[in-house]
Each structure stands twice: as C-alpha cells, then as structure tokens.
From TrEMBL, chain A:
SUPFAM superfamilies: Transmembrane di-heme cytochromes. The keyword Transcription does not apply. GO terms for molecular function: electron transfer activity; oxidoreductase activity. GO terms for cellular component: membrane. PANTHER family: CYTOCHROME B (PTHR19271:SF16). One of its GO terms (biological process) is respiratory electron transport chain. This is Cytochrome b6. It comes from the Archaea. It holds the Pfam family Cytochrome_B. Keywords: Membrane, Transmembrane, Transmembrane helix. The keyword Membrane applies.
From TrEMBL, chain B:
This is Cytochrome b. It comes from the Archaea. GO terms for molecular function: electron transfer activity; metal ion binding; oxidoreductase activity. Gene3D superfamilies: Cytochrome Bc1 Complex, Chain C.
Amino acid sequence: MSLERKDEHDHKGWMESRELSPLESIYLTTLIWLDKRLRVVDYLEILEDLYYKVNMQMPKSHTEQYNLDNKFWYWYPLYALGSFSTIAYIVAAISGALLGFYYAPAAAAADGSPTVAYDSVMLIMGQLNLGYFLRSVHRWAAQVMVAAVFLHMLRVYFTGAYKEPRELNWLIGIILISLTLVFGYTGYLLPWSQLSFWAGQIGVEMSLSIPLIGEWVAQLMFGGFTLSQATLQRMYILHVFFLPFITTALIAVHIGIVWMQGIAEPH
Amino acid sequence: MSTNDTDDEVRTDGSGGGIVAPDDETPTWSERKQRSQGLSRLTYEYFERSRREDQDLRQQSDYVERDVLAFPAWPHEMIRNLALTSFFVGMILFLAATLPPEMPNPANSAVTPAIILPDWYLYWSFGLLKLGPLNPDLSILGGQKLMADRTYGVLANVVVVGFVAIVPFINKGSARRPVEQPFWAAVGMSGVIFSLTIAALSIKNLIPMDSHLLFDLTFLVPIVSATITYAVLKTMREGYMFDLNRRYYRLRPPK
C-alpha cells in the first residue's frame, strides 16, 4: 500500500486519459492548482451564471418595441455625455499623474515672491519638454469634464431619467458633480498664484460663515483661518489622494447601477 | 502513542471528538438558507419571490429570446466606441494645444486683484454668495438681519443643491418627455437660465450694465423663460401626444 494520499477525484488520471495540447494541459494544471487552494471553480460558476443572465435574455428596449427612433433621435448624442465625462476624467487622471512627477506642494507664502509650488509649475511650463502641453491637457480635460457633467445632468433631468427606480443614482450623481467641482477648486489652488490665493481666501471665508461648524470646517479643509503652507498641502492631498479614490469608486458604482438598471429612454 | 490519548479528545489534525458533523448530517446550502431565522430567512424568501417575478416577466409577450442581441458588442460596438473616444480625446488635445492656460503672478496677500474669480463652473455658487440684498432684515429685531450676508449666501448654496437632490422624490410617475410634463420642463428651464443669470451676477463688474438692473434681471429672466417654456410645451402637447399615442395604438392595438 502506498503511503501517498490518493487523489480523490483523480484529476491527474483524467488529464492523462485525454489527449491535451500543451496549452490545454498547462491551463488545466494551473486551474486545478489554484482551485485546490482558492476554490476558483465556485467563482467561475458565478461568473458563468452572470454571463448568461446578462446575455441570454434581454427585453426589447422601448425604442425597438415601438420603433421610436424617429421620435427622439435628437436626444441620442446627449446620451453620450456621461461617457464623455468619464473619458475626460481618465485623460485628466493620466495627465495629472504625469504632472505629479514634477509638481511640489511646498513653501506656500503670500508675499508676492515665487514659491516652490509656483516655481515647479513654471518649470513644467517653461523647461520641461511638452510640459506646457501637459498642463494644458490637464486643465482642459478638467474643464471639459465639468462641462460634460453639467450637460449630462441636464440631459438626465429633461428626459426624466431620474425617475422611479433611479433616484439613488441621481443622488450619487449629485455627490459626483459636487466632487468634480471640489476637484476643480482644489486643483485651481495648487499653482499658488494670485488667482489661487484669492480663490482660497473666498473658500476660507465661505467655510467660516457656515453656522455652528464653520471654524471646524475651515481648520479641517484649509488647515487654519488664514492661507498657509498647511492649506496648500491639504489641497494637494485632497486633489491627488482623497478625491481620486472617492470619485473613482463612486463613478464605478454610478456606471454599475446604470448597467444594472439599463438606460432610461423617454417614452 | 501516549497513554493519555483518549478517543473523545480533540486533536490538532481535526480527527477524534464530535466537533465536525459527519458528512451525511451536514446541511446543504439550500437547507441552511431555509432553516435560518429572522432577517436572513426574510432575505431568502424575498429572493425566491423576486426570482419568480423575474421568471414571470420573462415569459411575458414583449420579452423576446434572441440569439443575437441588437448590435454586436464586438467588433461593431467596440469600434464605434473607440472612434468616438479617440475623437473626443482628440478634441481635448486640440483645445489644449490651441488655448493653453496662462500663469498669473505669484500669490501676494498685500495686493488684492481687481477681479477675484473662481473658475467659470463655480460662478453660480459665487453668485449665490452675493444675494445679500435679498437677506431679510426683520423689524422685530429692530431692522437687524437674522443671519450675516455670508451665512445667507452659503445657505442659498445648500438650498439650491438640496432642491436638485430631492427632485426625484417630488416628481414621480412614468412621464419622461418634457412635453408630457410642461411644468417640470419649465422648472428645469428656469433652473438652467437662473444658473446662467446668477453666474452673470457674480461677474457683475465685468458686465456693462447697471448692477441693480442686472440684479432684477437675474430673477426675472428665469421666470420669463419658464413661462415661455410652459406655454410652448403646453401648446405642443396635444398634437405631439396624439402622434405618439397613435403610434402605440397601431403597434399594439388594445384587445
């Protein structure tokens, strides 16, 4: 009697009994190896189930059923605004990551002399190959994203797409549009130029005039009641760490819900 | 084998002892779900019900079994998306190349610029901060204002965003087209126009117009445009809905 534990389902024997190409046997060996440890097959089953649920049976869309294309073809381009804002977000993320290699959120002062942050933006614009273009792309991607998001919201409003099963997604959309604006605002402050400084000043005053929690908000968001290095650093971390994580996750949820619920067509 | 090694003692390899149920007594997952109590039981029952509901829906006449879905995702849809995406990214690159940003002077707290402005997309919010003249002063308090103008402006922002957020909970029903609900289309149109006029108010020192007139127009223009929208849609409505209903009727005559 062999001391070796017997393979209960004898996958090895099964594999040998079949004539497998090298690719197939490598694939099966890997799959079995992973499955023994992680029960991959269970998850594959779920995926397979999902695939068929998504693909096998789809109701005819309202447009198909009643042949309504000639009744609202003029809405169709507006249905692309959501994906346009996502594309602009991706462009902004890529160009922003590249800008992040060169930008330093440091030495914020307000005495009219160039600070480290200001100088690093100047370096990007003046010395770096294609740096001016990179900053321009980042800025325009942001502007286009905000514009697309606003128009997307109008489209959703005027086609009544926020109704019954989709209220939750409307609320998520409002959070997303606010996050987009905060994204823009924090980015606006980063070059630490005159415009940045005075926009920051307005921000501090706005938070200070919130009843009850104003001072707390000003300290949390701006690191004090006057603009300083702390402000710049907080804006930077919001812009490159907190907001990207939150916004990306929410965009994923937003699109996931659209996927699950389907596009709301006017009827 | 040591002498104190008894049968009912649990061993580290999991054998011995009655801790693990024998295989034939282990409940299956469906049994576990059925046996469970409280919330999980409710969840299970609800899932079963909704599964039945789905099934019924699928068997209704307007659900069709199709081998091929309307427009194949690969390659047709993918190529279309790729074309649209590259066109759009190209547009951003073109804008970036033709209209690069400029860089103002370094921050200087001693010099207040003539014009303090955020980016264009925050003009509406900036304009709402300048609604001081609408902040009521109460005669009870001896002509004093209940809250500072700044607080009033921040509150106006909260009110506007809050109103937009609760729209789906006020406007219910299955109507989708603006012509079906002229009132809500008019509300939307006044909102759009107001966001533009309030943005104009926020940059009033750049607009060659009497600031009092501008302030009045900020509120009048949205109301006028809402009225026009309402009138136009109300007029269109009958003919439009007649067309639409005739189409539905032809495709699906009532039994």
